[in-house]
Every structure is written in structure tokens, then in C-alpha cells.
Amino acid sequence: MKKPISKTSKSSGSLKKLSPEVREALDAYHAETQAHIDALNKKSDEDIKRYIGSLTEEYQGRTSAIAEQFSGLNEKVDTINQKLDMHTEIIGIIAEDVAVLKEDVAEIKDELKNKADKTEVIHLSRRVSVLEHRV
Fold first, then answer.
1. pLDDT (tens digit, 9 = 90+) per residue, 50-96?
2. Cα–Cα distance between 9 and 19 in angstroms, integer?
3. Pairing between strand 8-11 and 14-17?
4. Distance CA 76, CA 122 (A)
5. Among 18, 75, 93, 111, which is disulfide-ready with 22 (CB 3.0 to 4.6 Å)?
6. Do the Cβ atoms of 41 and 49 come closer than 8 Å?
7. Contact 40, 32 (CB under 8 A)
């Protein structure tokens, strides 16, 4: 790396002043170099802005895609909840019907216990007819 040029330069152990021509050339070189550095900084700034802009667009695109998916999932969950509510109501109705049927079955069982069997009725009928003929 070169040392920066100063107003004075060491030569043969003694300090000499730069001539006006050299100073003018160095100033022109310095101005040209500074202009080049400024142009590079400006280009670099533009590149960074462009890159950040593209990153922002990509991020926004992905974010909107996620938002759309989330919205779709919310709709599906709402639909499932509605179906679940309907099924819960249907199960409640079925449970009520089962309770009524259980009561009906219990009544029928009681009535069947009290009714005579067909064969018993026939047997009893024969006995009564035999008794009636004897008398």
C-alpha cells in the first residue's frame, strides 16, 4: 500500500516543498479520485436500494401468499365447526329418540310378561271346554 502524498516529501533526508505544478497535478488527481469514489458510492447506494426493493417485493409476495392460505384455512375451520354443530344437534335428537324407544321397549316387555302364551291359551281353552261338558 502506498503512503498518502503529503505537502512535503522526504528526499535525501531533507524536507522539500512541492512545486506548484506537482501540487496542481496532485489536486487534480485527488479531485478525480474523489469523483470516482463518489460515483462508486452512488452506484453502490443504488444497487443496495434496488436489492432491498427486490427483497421487500419478495417478502410482501410471500406474506400475501401466507395470508391467503390462512384465510382459506379459516374458512375450512368455520365450515367444519358448522358441520360439528349440526352433528351435535342430530346426536341430541337421536339421544332423545333412544330414550323414548327405551321406555317403549320397557313397556312392551312388561306387557309381554302379563300376556299369556298362545299355547297356554289353547291349553286353557281345552280345559274349560272339558269342564263345561262335564257339567
1. 999 999 999 999 999 999 999 999 999 999 999 999 999 999 999 99
2. 11
3. antiparallel
4. 67
5. 18
6. no
7. no
